[in-house]
Each structure stands twice: as structure tokens, then as C-alpha cells.
Specification:
Elements: H1 18-24, H2 50-53, H3 60-69, H4 95-104, E1 111-112, H5 120-124, H6 132-154, E2 160-161, E3 164-165, H7 166-188, H8 220-233, H9 249-261, H10 263-267, H11 272-284, E4 308-312, H12 324-330, E5 351-352, H13 355-358, E6 374-376, E7 393-395, E8 422-426, H14 427-442, H15 447-459, H16 467-470, H17 475-484, H18 490-496, H19 529-534
Antiparallel strand pairs: 1-5, 2-3, 4-8, 6-7
Helix pairs in contact: 3-6, 3-7, 4-6, 6-7, 7-8, 8-9, 9-11, 9-14, 11-14, 14-15, 14-17
Length: 544
């Protein structure tokens, strides 16, 4: 295994070939209506086409780096100037930022205070099919799929270059495609445009995976993703034996587990035992352990953690974007908070937590919550003005300083961009998922899994829990909030536990100060109107 301090230097993910990046860039406005039109020779004889890039196997690794960079970068030339998603401010089009907006802002964990276009409607759960922020992530996810397809279309199954097997690179590209398709399925349902490397190159109107929405008669996309990940699982490196940020068997175990854990939501058929089996493989690998410090999981030196299973990796100098972790850290700082305490030049005063999240922390000693990483705003914890950042709870979870509070060694001279990685999958999440699969599959959490949960609790500085507690009510869902808030799990969790559209309310849900239930169709986001207009093969989700 590579020294984690190398942080992807060998693969050079942080310095992606612009030539390859430009070739793999696809027009974002008509992604599903006219995809993969990369076979046309450019008018400029100095420009490079895909057939020229992929003619040299030495370029394959750079092309693969572009696929991973799709999770971290927003465009082709640094933070601004040549965006992948062109109709919105470039930072809003970045993958992690868009995913956070849709997974956290319409939940009991977060609210945003910016009056930017239709952004307030996300927190209010009053969005419509023309919402530009929903549209941005929809295109970003499909863009990732398109990049992966182009890679798979051009890289042969057999061979190697510089000791790297083509088959391994192809397996990673398939993982990236499956990962993006999972997000599309979770947010938009089965009716998103479905394209693989087997589809024709050039302008065409792709069909959806199947009927729109979720259900037993609309599971084509779910079945495709599961079959892909099951097949590539054996082709990927063993857990934590490869380079940081690249997919391995551990990442595949987690992706399959996420699909199985949510199978009842997606298909109407529960797959608890399948989720349990994948999670047991991950735990039994022995490759992952809890980070000694909870706070250290979200600091600039978190790339050293053995808790991380899969991450989006950021570097203050080489992956500059106004999305990603730059957004996650800056947007959470404002009011009386000191930007220097977070290793940045200034706060943007946007995202804060709701009183409903704060109330989950029943133990005042919890190092994850009140008084530590969750503190009451300057103007109190209740919010009567969505656009007043100083109302609510400040979240101090993510920082651009090291875990011990020291500054990073090679910061952005301007103080804008950050070095902190985003732990997309981590071990404590896997433990809590295993507990849920056991509880819902057999009616109780096993003693071994309970012991792992109590290790998480001990790290947090709170008391251990009993079998009665962990097996009752919504305890696991609440513990997931305490452990994983702002890590882009909450919307999916609330839906799976039947607490999203009804069952639980929070401030500004439904557009009211104290919150109200909303129609069940809000469990899915709408297919953007622009894509429906461009591609008559697509159908809108129910309710929009």
C-alpha cells in the first residue's frame, strides 16, 4: 500500500492532463439528448480528438484521472473559466456541492441562508421541475456516466501500460459509472437516460432505463448497477492496497451495501440479508478501523485515516474549485465565527444546522455535537428568518486546519481553497448500516455489531448503549444523524425510515417556519424540464 502522505501523487490526479480533460469534456446542456458526440474531427487542426488520445495507451491513466476528477473539479481550468456545467455559477455545478444541496438542505440537518434563485426552495421542499440547482446535479451525474462510457469505449479489456492492467482501469471506470448512476437512481428514479459504452457514438436520443420513479416494475437501473458492481468487485484491488481515492474492493462492498440497504425503497423488495453479507465482508477484511479522533475525520490531514473507505480528494493548490470542500467549509462559517480557526480567509455565511439536529444530541458530553462541533448561533437556535445565518446552529465539523489545529504546510496563498478530503464512505457508516440490516432483517442487532457501535460511542465521549436501546424505535436513524450529519446521507436515510415527507417535521419543511408534511412525490426530484423538452423519450416523475 502506498504511503497515504503521497496523496495520489503517483497517479497525478491532482495535475490532470488538460489535453485529455478537454477531449473527455462533453457539452453539459444537452447531455441526455445528444451525448458522446466525440467522433467529429475538430476544425482546428491543433485540437485533439478522442481517437488520437486513446491511440496512445500512456494516456489511459490520465483519462482515468479525469473520471475521478469529475467528483472534485468543476471545469477544465481551475476554479473558474471553463466549466463542465455551463448554465449556472461554476461552483454550483461541482459534484459534491450539488450532491450536498440535494441530500442535506431538504432535511432536518441543514438549511441555507442564501436567496440565490430557486435555492431557498430546496430547504423548503417546494421545488419545481425548472429548479436550476436540481438541474445542475442531474447533468453532473449524467456527465460522469458519459465520461466513463467514453473511457470504456476506447480502452481495451486486455493489456497493460507501466504495470497497470487495462482491466483494472476499466473496472474503476465501471465503478465510477455505477456510483454516479446510483446517485441518479436515488435522487431521480429509474427514468433517467440510460447509456452505456455499447450505445452508438454521436448524436442520438437515449431511452430511459425504464418507467419513471421507483417500484417493482421499474427496477432496470437498480439491476444494472448491482450487476456491474458485483462483476467488478473481484477485479478491484483488495481494500486499502491501492492509491488513495481510487476504488477498491472496500468501495465496491459499500456501494453494493448502499444499494441493498435501500432496495426496498428503490424496488419494493427488501434485501437486508444481502446488505448484511456485503458489510460483513468489509468488516471482516480488517482493513478499516475507527479514526482515534472524530474531529480528525474532517480535518485537512484526514487522508491519513484508516476509517476512510472511499473519498473525494482535494488539494489547496491543484484541485481548486468553489464547490467541493471549499464550499463545505466556507459556507458554514459566518457571524462571530473566526475564519482563521478553519484555515480559510473568510466565511460565506450560508449553511447552518437546525434545532432538530441539535435535539438529537441528548448527551451533553457528545464530542460530535453541542458545545464542540455544533454551537448555537449568535441570534439563537430557532430560525424565524431563513436568510439570517446567525439564527440556527453553527457547524464546526469541517476545517482546513490539521486535526491538532495547526495550519497545513502548502496552503492556497489566497486562503480560498482547501486541503480537506470528503469521506464519501467511512467505516462508522458501515457499522451503523450493518446494525440496520440486522435489525430490519432479523429483528435485532447482533452482539458483535453492538460492540462496534459502542466503540463509535466511546470515541464520541458518550455512554454505551444496550441491546434494548439499539433495537428500539428510531435509535439507529438518530445515531446516524449524530455520527454522519452533513456527510450527504440524510435525505436517503429519512426516506428509508419513512420519516422524510411525513413522520417528522423540521423548520421550513413545506415552506413554513415550524415545518409541515409534504406530498410523497417529493421523495424523488423532478427530471429537469429542459431535458424533457430536449428528449421526448423521457417521462417526468409523478407529481411534477
Amino acid at each position: 500500500m502506498l504511503d497515504s502522505n503521497q496523496k495520489l501523487k503517483k497517479m497525478n490526479f491532482k495535475n490532470i492532463s488538460r489535453k485529455v480533460a478537454a477531449v473527455l469534456a462533453i457539452s453539459s446542456i444537452t447531455l441526455s439528448s445528444c451525448v458522446n458526440d466525440l467522433d467529429t474531427e475538430p476544425i482546428d487542426p491543433n485540437a485533439t480528438t478522442a481517437n488520437k488520445v486513446f491511440a496512445d495507451p500512456a494516456n489511459y491513466i490520465n483519462a482515468l484521472a479525469k473520471l475521478y476528477a469529475g467528483f472534485t473539479l468543476s471545469g477544465q481550468q481551475g476554479p473558474t473559466g471553463n466549466p463542465d456545467i455551463k448554465f449556472l455559477d461554476e461552483g454550483h455545478g461541482q459534484y459534491l456541492r450539488g450532491y450536498y444541496v440535494l441530500q442535506e438542505l431538504p432535511t432536518d440537518e441543514a438549511i441555507n441562508g442564501w436567496n440565490d434563485g430557486n435555492l431557498p426552495r430546496i430547504s423548503q421542499m417546494t421545488w419545481q421541475a425548472n429548479n436550476e440547482f436540481i438541474r445542475a446535479f442531474y447533468y453532473r451525474a449524467i456527465y460522469q456516466v458519459s465520461l466513463a462510457n467514453e473511457f470504456l469505449r476506447n480502452v481495451p479489456a486486455d493489456g497493460e501500460v507501466n504495470g497497470i492492467q487495462f482491466s483494472t482501469m476499466r473496472a474503476e471506470a465501471r465503478f465510477i459509472r455505477a456510483f454516479a448512476y446510483w446517485h441518479a437512481l436515488d435522487l431521480f428514479g429509474n427514468g433517467v437516460p440510460f447509456v452505456t459504452e455499447g450505445d452508438p457514438v454521436g448524436a442520438f436520443l437515449p431511452n430511459p432505463a425504464g418507467l419513471p420513479g421507483w417500484g417493482s416494475d421499474r427496477r432496470e437501473l437498480f439491476d444494472f448497477i448491482v450487476s456491474e458492481v458485483k462483476e467488478i468487485e473481484t477485479m478491484l484491488p483488495e481494500p486499502r492496497t491501492g492509491e488513495l481515492g481510487r476504488a477498491d474492493k472496500g468501495a465496491a462492498y459499500m456501494l453494493l451495501s448502499k444499494l441493498y440497504l435501500n432496495a426496498e425503497t428503490y424496488t419494493g423488495t427488501a434485501m437486508w440479508s444481502e446488505a448484511e453479507a456485503e458489510l460483513n465482508k468489509l468488516v471482516a477484511s480488517g482493513a478499516y478501523t475507527l479514526n482515534p479522533s472524530y474531529k480528525g475525520m474532517f480535518s485537512a490531514d484526514n487522508h491519513t485515516s484508516t476509517e476512510t473507505i472511499f473519498s473525494f480528494n482535494f488539494n489547496a493548490l491543484n484541485t481548486q474549485t468553489f464547490g467541493g470542500m471549499t464550499y463545505m467549509i466556507h459556507a458554514a462559517v459566518g457571524g462571530s465565527m473566526s475564519a482563521a480557526d478553519f484555515g480559510i480567509n473568510s466565511g460565506w455565511g450560508g449553511n447552518r444546522a437546525l434545532r432538530e439536529l441539535n435535539a438529537k444530541f441528548v448527551d451533553g458530553a457528545d464530542l460530535r455535537g453541542p458545545g464542540e462541533l455544533l454551537t448555537v448561533g449568535d441570534d439563537g437556535g430557532d430560525i424565524d428568518d431563513q436568510f439570517k445565518f446567525t439564527q440556527g446552529y453553527f457547524v464546526r465539523k469541517f476545517t482546513n486546519n490539521n486535526a491538532d489545529g495547526t495550519a497545513i504546510s502548502n496552503p492556497d496563498p489566497n486562503g480560498d481553497h482547501v486541503d480537506t478530503d470528503f469521506p464519501t464512505f467511512r467505516y462508522s457508516d458501515a457499522v451503523l448500516m450493518l446494525a440496520e440490516a440486522e435489525l430490519k432483517g432479523s429483528g435485532s442487532v447482533s452482539g458483535g455489531t453492538l460492540a462496534l457501535i459502542n466503540q463509535i460511542r466511546t470515541r464520541a465521549g458518550v455512554g454505551t448503549v444496550t441491546p434494548t436501546e439499539v433495537n428500539s424505535g428510531l435509535w439507529i436513524l438518530d445515531e446516524r444523524a449524530r455520527e454522519l450529519y452533513w456527510e450527504c446521507h440524510r435525505r436517503t436515510d429519512l426516506i428509508r425510515w419513512g420519516q422524510y415527507t411525513s413522520g417528522a417535521n423540521w423548520q421550513y419543511k413545506g415552506g413554513t417556519v415550524n415545518g409541515t408534511s409534504v406530498a410523497d412525490y417529493h421523495r424523488l426530484m423532478p427530471i429537469p424540464s429542459s431535458d424533457l423538452n430536449a428528449n421526448p423519450n423521457l417521462k417526468q416523475n409523478e407529481g411534477y
